[in-house]
Amino acid sequence: MNLKELRKKLQDKEIDTKLRTDNPVWEDGYERAMRDVRSWLSELDEPEKVTIPQCIATLIEENKTYGLRTPLSIAYYIAESISSGDKHYQWLKDEGNQKLLLNAIASGYEIEGTPKGLIQVKQL
Q: Is this structure's pTM higher than 0.90?
């Protein structure tokens, strides 16, 4: 569950509970608790998505289509299948880019040069 889903769940729960209670003391305590939870949620950060080249995004997505779902299995397969003749080898041999790859797999990514707000759709 991500923060957006948690906020929605809390909002639904808040509305649902307000409709069912007749106890003003309980309702006051509930309101205070919900205020605290909303305050804490506003302090949380979701991991920032990293920006990677299209060819690396394609590698990640291809590995997901092979049934690899865990971040470790995706990273391992990419590392094992790359050779010095591949076009993305130079990018992947850089340690900083390796960290970007791991973050992209774990936290999501944006593609270099893709305007924000557009959705990429694979051609059928």
A: no
